[in-house]
Amino acid sequence: MPEDSVHRSASGDPVLLTPGPLTTSVAVKQAMQHDAGSRDPAFIEMNRRVRERLVGIAGGSERHLCVPVQGSGTFAVEAMLGSLLPRNGRLLNLVNGAYGRRISTICDYLGRERVELTFPEDRPVDPAQVAAALAADAGITHVALVHCETTSGIANPLTAVADVVRAAGRALLVDAMSSFGALPIDADVLGLAAVAASANKCLQGAPGLAFCIVDEAVLSAADGNAHSLCLDLQAQARAMAGNGQWRFTPPTHCVLALAEALDELQAEGGPPAREARYRNNCRVLVEGMRALGFRPVLEPALQAPIIVTFHQPRDPGWDFTRFYNALAARGFLIYPGKLTEAASFRVGCIGAIDATVITAFLDAVRAVLDELQIHDTGP
Ligand SMILES: *Cc1c(COP(=O)(O)O)cnc(C)c1O
Fold it and tell me: How far apart are CA 345 and CA 322, in angstroms?
């Protein structure tokens, strides 16, 4: 491979066109070149400030708290369900992809009762059906929604679902993992009980830290719910309210990286500016891939600007692993598909990348199609 056809990020790494971990800025990586004392006042103050800023990004008020947990995003989802669902509660889980199904799996591990309302993977959750399901079952105490279902890249109607859940007097738990920091979330106005997210998606931090934005009233009513010491949000919140410290070893380098990443988000113009950059990335990607014959799975109006799912080409010579490897050799890492219904692959629009990177990616795709002799890229 000639050196000039290999793309590299600013730090010399391949570009991650994946929904997290993703390409972070050089400054975010440099922020981790330090050792922070977990009980030291400087770290405690940085941690406090990070939590405060995360509440702001969620559209929270004084009623809301950010409770961090060590681990990947799923740790926060499990902490949210385990800590906030009473052991005799019943969850209505709204499912249109693998992350929704994961919420049911977590409930099954925890022994929490759940019922599913499922939708096709290429259709959004329908608020009218949610309203009907709540009206039909008075035993449902909580509802779970995945904001952007990263399986397909679909945007679910958070506001409309929140309106229905609030009107029915139930509590809404949101998995906002792949939307937090880019798509609007108004926890206070929407009356959300909790929102789970992580540092390493639209916030463009390092993986290893996740968090829930929780309504304080919901958290103080959560006595005795938690199934797990490590994932007990109430205990974590109480300890932090006491001495400002994490209960167990914090991912100090991730907190340092997240503090820098939040500075960058603010400098960029906050979530609206980030959403606009991602939308532009997504538009350039979809237009360019369409011009090469690829077809996205979702209708344009349903597509969130986070990750795009494409149908695998029908060309008899098509092989995803060869396609992946040839793109990786040119400096771009993409994602396999996760749909149960259609053979697909995914390309992320998020991270410290702009449309020039997407354009370079499209050049690489063109070269790879040529190299692998793939002519028929339609589904
Ligand atoms: C990434 C993601 C998660 C969490 O995944 P981890 O691999 O545990 O970080 C959960 N829900 C959604 C919608 C996601 O995109």
Answer: 13
Is residue 363 classed as helix, strand or coil in its secondary structure? helix
Residue by residue, DSSP assigns 256-283 as HHHHHHHHHHHHHTHHHHHHHHHHHHHH
Integer angstrom CA distances of residue 346 from 60, 124, 148, 154, 308: 32, 18, 14, 12, 6
CA distance 91 to 142: 5
Cα separation, 232 vs 243, whole angstroms? 17
d(CA 70, CA 209): 5
Amino acid at 331: G
pLDDT digits (tens, 9 = 90+) for 155-214: 999 999 999 999 999 999 999 999 999 999 999 999 999 999 999 999 999 999 999 999
| Distances from the Cα of 258 to the Cα of 24, 138, 187, angstroms | 11, 41, 21
Task: Determine how many CB atoms are found less than 10 A away from the CB of residue 81.
Answer: 28
- Cβ(74) – ligand 1 distance below 6 Å: yes
Among 75, 198, 306, 338, the mutation site with the greatest number of ligand 1 atoms within 8 A of its Cβ is: 198
Minimal-distance CA residue to ligand 1 atom 4: 73
Q: How far apart are CA 230 and CA 75, in angstroms?
A: 10
pTM equals 0.97
Residue 339 — very low, low, confident or very high, per pLDDT cuts 50/70/90?
confident
- Note the pLDDT tens digit of each residue in 201-216: 999 999 999 999 999 9
